[in-house]
Amino acid sequence: MSAPRPSNERRSEREALAAALERARHLLPAQAPIRSFVHHNTLHAFEDLPFDEAVVLAAERFGAEPYELESAFAAHLASGRIDTGDLDAVLREAAIDDAPAWSGGPSRRALYELRLQHPLELPQGAALAWHLTEGDALSRFHPAVSEAARARILASAARALGRHAVDAPAALAALYAALAPHAPAAVARAPGPRPRDRVLAERGVDVDELVHPVLVRSCAAFVDQGVAYWSMPARARGLFPAFRALYAAPGGPPDPWLRGLGAELAALEGQAPEEVALDALRRLGVGPADLEPVVEGTLLALRGWAGMIAQLEARPDRAPVWRPPARLVDLLALALLLEARAVQHVSSSRAAPAVAASARRSEAPELVYEAFLLAQLAGIGPHELAPERARALVALVAELDGITRRRLWHRAYERHHRDRVLDALLAHVERGVPALARPWAQVLCCIDDRAESLRRHLEELDPSIETFGYAGFFGVSMAYRGLGEASARPLCPVAVRPRHLVVEEPIEEAHARRVAARRRWAGRLRHGAAVGSSSLVRGGVLAATVGMLGAIPLVGRVLFPRLTERLVHHAARATFGEPATRLRFARADDDEAIQDGLFGGFTVAEMADIVGALLGATGMGAALAPLVVVVGHGSSSLNNPHESAYDCGATGGGRGGPNARAFAAMANHEGVRAELARRGAPIPEGTWFVGAEHDTCRDSIEWLDADLVPPTLEAALERLAAQLERALALDAHERCRRFASAPLEMTPARAHAHVEARSADLGEPRPECGHATNAVCIVAPRARTRGLFLDRRAFLVSYEPAQDPDGAHLGALLAAVGPVSAGINLEYYFSFVDPEVYGAGTKLPHNITGLVGVMNGHASDLRTGLPWQMVEIHEPVRLSMIVEADPQKLERVLAAHPDLARLAGNGWMHLIAWCPDEGRMWRFERDGFVSHERARRDVVEVARSPELYRGRREHLECARVEAALGVGAR
Amino acid sequence: MIALAGAAGAAVVPLGAALIAKRAASARAARRVASAGMLVAFASALAASVATGGGERASVPVLIAAIGLVAVVMSPLGGATPRTFARILLVVGGTAAIVVTDVPVALALGWIGSIVPAWLELRSRRETRPSARAFAAYLVPSAALVTLGALLASTGLPPAYGLLALAAGLAIREAILPAHGWLPRFVEQAPMGLVVAFVAPQIGVFAHLRWLAGRLAPEVDLVLAVLAALTVVSAALLAVVQRRARRALGYFFVSQSALVAFGLDGDDVVGRSGAVLAWWTCGLATAGFAMTLAALEARRGALSLEHAGRSARQVPLLATAYVVLGLASVGLPGTLGFIAEDLLVSGAVHEHPVLAFALVVGTALNGITVARGFFTLFAGARAPVGERDLTLRERSVLTALVAALLVAGVWPSGPVRWLGLAEPPPAAASTR
Amino acid sequence: MTLEQSLRLAPVLAIAAPALAFALIALRLGIGHTPGERWTARLVALAFGVATLAIAGAASAMLVGGLTEVHVALGAWLEVADRALPFELVLDRLSVPFAGLAAGLVGLTGAFSARYLHRDRGFARFYLLLCLFGAGVELVLLGGSLELVFVGWELVGLTSALLIAFFDERPTPARHGLRAFVIYRVCDVGLLSAAVWLHHSAGGAGLDASERWAGVRVPAGALDATLVGALLLFAALGKSAQIPFGGWLPRAMEGPTPSSAVFYGAISIHLGPYLLLRAAPILERAPLAAGLVIAVGALTALHATFVGRVQTDVKSALAYASMTQVGLIFVEIGLGLPWLAIAHVVGHASLRTLQLLRAPSVLHDRGHLERAMGAELPRAGGHLERLVPARLQPWLYRLALERGYHDALVADRVLAPVVRWLRALDRLEERWIAWLEGRPAKVAREPERGEVVR
């Protein structure tokens, strides 16, 4: 292929390639197969940089938007979501000087402020020319211009033109003419580093259009987990070898640019993909200096698939069925090999290079137009605009460019929300939260923002129930295999590899076997029909005979989703029955048997660690109620490839029910209780733990092992179940206000039925809102936030500072909770801010491919991030992490946890220290904590939450709810 | 009398308006004057036609005035001067003059009168000045041939030579193969309003109906039919592979006008009716179509068909007008174009089955050209900032146009009766 | 109202109701007043409800009255000299089940989409196109002459293409919409030509009464019959995505899921068989045309089932599965088994619509299935690996993965040379004009993109 080179040069090349590959790997989306969707910071790779720098850099690299669009900010300004106070504060923070823009002119600060108060529509290129010739830009003042400014400009124009009086068109023409000569030179965009970019610029042909379909086909066939009936031969050898095995055979595809590919591949027998990639780079004329950007650009051009390959390489265990031997270098080699062919094909076509289609513009009239509008707003007339001043004005406009404006607006937007939450918290505590009498029941939920409303409603219904928040795997990191499941799956945070297996087992073996046999038989039938319907003969017979029966589920599913789902459910239960089960979670202390890298359960000591840690950190252990319910959560919906993104993040995108069940079982375990008592943190004799799973979509609850409750507590459990049921209906009720398709006036019961229908509806792309609107994380005892309406926007982490003077618990808690909640928040931020690049775009054309992800249509890149329907109502603000701790304690925690320090210090979240008893807060900035200036604002007070939210769809501010305080309880 | 007055209005009013428009202070003012003038001209032509109960002849000025109105009202200001508008009006007036009178010399004068302003407009800009030469290279002979034919006709000599000369002159103006070369270039270079005023009325069709129909020898008819069919298909093919929207439009014009010309050459009544109907619908629909393209061009700059365009999100009405008018001119069912095409092909199939098939293929290809333009210009990327949809001025004229085409498409008997196509035309009957 | 009168009303309602809904939505959009979602969805539900009921009513009336075929003449659409375009609709044992099924399925899709497209900015546009599609389909199915069928046929094509390109801010939907439009438009030539040729050779393109159901008039000459049969087959190829015009079908999945389901799973794709069923009398007279139908159908069925087996995304797999079954239906029609074909169409449409609507649930369903089976699903394709010799496997797999080289062959072997040749011609023209203009003949040769229609 190429002349042999000195081996050490070769080696250094390979090293450079490996290094480039590693760096590129970090930029790829870190999204696992979609069955276990875990939220994470979309720009994780940029966390080393300050947020504002990172978003701009990433926006350039990915071709994305760093902040919301100017038009969105215009809407925020119009609606009052950003007010002048916010802008003022932000400009003060940004230290925009007060000096006049030119001698005798308005101050720079004033011009900035004026510009920021008026987002303008700025047409580009031909559209601007159209506005100037056909529109009324030059004949009428901009509608936002004040009367006074108009008068000033008219007078100034009259003076400039030496006339007594002039009309608006003449004045505007003079103003425009004064600015027009100072158009700065337009900056031409340099083509990217890839050979493809060069070819595109020179010949107007995008070789990616040739290469990518082949890559997409190959990648999809390689990673397919079972959509295709016939899977790719030889794929067990890896992507590149499999491709080689397929395409090296003679008689390849007839596409002209692929002619000769077979021979080329055949000659590569035994070559490592690294060599192939290096050869291709050489053929493409890529020098060592360009190696890194080219490798990066090549992979980023197909970043969804490249990311999936990289993920499967790093964590093959997360592939649901088949673990492909994925290697990113295989994909790179393939991409470069094909690109080299395509570039050669296009360049060698007899065609001469394309003449530049449009003449390059030498000036940027857009800036002149913008300056023209700003001058109007500021009331600066042509007379004042001597050439150097006109130049200064245009320069100021250029300096306050789109990115800068949006950055400032974004800060104001965040500030507006954050300060209101902080002030409400301070006011709430100041007004007093009465201490709770000894509760008869405690409910432990996930920290999830969706649990906030459930907890609040429950407390409103019965203020003597206490609630807690803890990461929804409840400390139980396990691999779990449910009844009938083929394989175990991890149920723990993604960063953790589980080491213990927990299995669900039937109580009555024989009955379970009968049920399983019946279900298997039905499953085979269904599977057979599904596979058969796509085949030739079986499909024909099926369609022509029983096909018409398909109309029944079709009509049912489409027109009566809830009824159909219930019927199907009951029919299945009646036919198959549901065997009762228990978990096998414990193992003897000396049982060291390991299967698939997993212990067969937890030892007593391990369980005591888990239970003790949770009870200690949340402060629950100090005063346990007789009945403790542990509520995990999951979400079920149909036609929702992103279903798992609605599940519990703390369990790695799984349902938290088994964790809750396991935790309850451990806490009830006699040995564990004995061990805990020995350690000096006993669980009282009369306390019983019950597990449950909350379906956040249907707002239903499933009790787990409730039959084990001691008879003395049965009545209490019944009472709690009834209260929970009511709370769930109210939760559904509160959620429904955010669904534009749900009527605003509904009773809780109707709302409950409505959310159930949503989860069973094939046509519902928004089964629930997920984490959308999340904005705050509060790490404090519930006593601080109890009775505060937080609008389902806050992660609530139970933390008892009194029991943690040295901050050891806090460090562990924040290290776990901080990245997770910030990750969720940032993923929503980016998917909202650029739904096409960072998000997965609209859900409507999504097409599941290979069971690992979704594409648009039949051959697109994998779409990563969140679909638009999921983030639609989100407010893109960074998370405000409010921790009850003094700044010194937090500083110690940050020093001990560099990850946290990086997140907070680089502004990926706002970290706030809160001393409720002092009534003060401090915000963490780059160089330490800064005191928060409190504004005295009234906190609205209502008896119950529904009074507050009923009839309203928009985001709501914090408010006090008396019922939950135990004061107004009825 | 009324008819003559109305028709004269269609010719005289634009000429008068041209004189005023030329002196207007700005292009914007000139457009205002020209629009008002064309509106008056259109109204008077329509009133006259209605008053006389329609008929093929009496309604032609309506067509010309309508096209002129669309051309003037929709003309973008970018690059235009008051003189541009004056010249558009002159072209319309000259064209209308041809149809108001039966005197052969008037034909020649109108013919020349409509060519010169177009040529002057090309001459007036530096970048299009060379094109004026190519334009003249085709249209001067055309004018000469037509003048010769008219003179021969008025001297009363044996008509064959005169008719041949006339036919040749018309063929050039109709851009029938191989004399079509000037048209794509003209469409690329001239202001769109002028192009539409000059090309869309297909004055050659009128002249053909008036002077040639049924008078040419059958062999000549056949030759013309074959050439027209060839033009339909080959121009449609060339249009479909173009990379620049304007040039594609040029070939589209070539193909469409040949389509009409084809139907005129047969002696089947159905085919002839189809051709007349096609003349009307193509004239109106392509005029609107070309002007929507111009409106888009004014907002986006030169339009390329090679690269993915921009979403129609900000210009939904413009996009709708584009696709409806474009498809109406290629026989979208539900518009009058479909009826015209069906009649045209049905008429042709008895005499020239193979050529009839060519017509079907040609329209299918033209449909593809329209769709290709639509999908590349109005989809593919986020919409650019600040693009404005149709202005009230543009919207009103396009709405009227679209409504007329759709109503006539659903209820074709009305226009057919108005045009006097339901019965065999007396002209054809008298000469056979 | 007599039975007769009410029967006259039914097909008119079935076409007019969606058409009216289209007109109302279009009017509101046209005056710049985007209608609300609820209003739109209700209007459309009403329209298709009326259409479905009208057809159902007509069906029961015909059953009760023992009628098998009713021609509803509504006067002439247009009359010029000897050429008349009669406006006649036909209710018979072919059109009634098809029209009822179509109205019902489009109505269901409309109900589904009210939630699915909720808050999408193209909501009104979607329903606008859906209504036009519905009216077009009913016109195809109920039209009593090939001209009327053609009107509906074109509308179906146009709306399909516009819905594929529904998401207009990305380049590929537009490209694929255009591809579908091109193929439709090319194949429509067959239908129009057939109509015209029937006028020429058989004196009219209306549907004549016959014992089974109304059929296309059969030309006297065998050659004419074969030609018309072939033209109708050509027309059917595009809509039904048969070889060699099938490449657009998987690409059509760029549109919103419900329109993909109803168009390419249920209705649009079965219009080809419908047309051929109407042409059954001709196919019976012209064995060559019938043979062609069988050949195309069989080839497509084999091609599609083979290609479908390696598809790794759900919608493509379903698209090829549909193509397979439609191929089989073609074979049945060619073999003269019309009743079987009707049953096959109805069954297939019901089944496939549900599967396509449910396509995004495949992960969910698979989880359920796995739990039911208590094991990972059995790996498919094992017998293929056993049956096909190992040496052939890569070759065959690649052929299937590359979709039988179908697109590449059509684009590169057929289209590309034509485009190259035409562009050369165009350059020649430009040079000639440049010479006339006295400019230097510097007409740059622009690079080839290989394909006009990408």
Structure description:
The complex is a heterotrimer of chains A (970), B (432) and C (454). With 970 residues, chain A is an alpha/beta fold. Helices cover 48% and strands 10% of the residues of chain A. Chain A contains 36 helices and 22 strands. The termini of chain A are far apart. Chain B has helices at 2-22, 27-51, 56-74, 82-100, 104-124, 129-155, 159-173, 182-189, 192-199, 203-212, 218-240, 245-265, 269-300, 316-329, 336-351, 353-377, 392-410, 413-418, 426-431. Chain B is 78% helix and 0% strand. With 454 residues, chain C is mostly helical. Chain C is built from 18 helices and 4 strands. A two-stranded antiparallel ribbon of chain C has the order 1-2. A two-stranded antiparallel sheet of chain C has the order 3-4. The longest helix of chain C is centred in the middle third of the chain and has 32 residues, at 171-202. Chains in contact: A-B, A-C, B-C. At the A-C interface, α10, α11, α21, α22 and α23 of A face α3, α6, α12, α13 and α14 of C.
Oligomeric state, counting identical vs distinct chains: heterotrimer
Helices and strands of chain B, in order, run as HHHHHHHHHHHHHHHHHHH
Radius of gyration of chain B from the CA trace? 20 Å
How far apart are the termini of chain C? Answer: 55 Å
**Sheet/helix structural class of chain C:** mainly alpha
Unreliable segments of 5+ consecutive residues of chain B: 425-432
Q: Could you describe the largest sheet of chain C, including whether it forms a barrel?
A: 2 strands, antiparallel
Number of domains of chain C: 2
Strand content of chain C: 5-15%
- The count of strands of chain B amounts to 0
Distance between the first and last residues' Cα of chain B: 29 Å
Structural class call of chain B reads mainly alpha
Shape of chain C: globular
What general form of chain B does the structure show?
A: globular
- As a percent range, the share of helical residues of chain C equals over 70%
Task: Using the CA coordinates, give the radius of gyration of chain C.
Answer: 24 Å
Number of strands of chain C: 4
| H/I helix tally of chain B | 19
Give the topology string of chain C: H per helix, E per strand.
Answer: HHEEHHHHEEHHHHHHHHHHHH
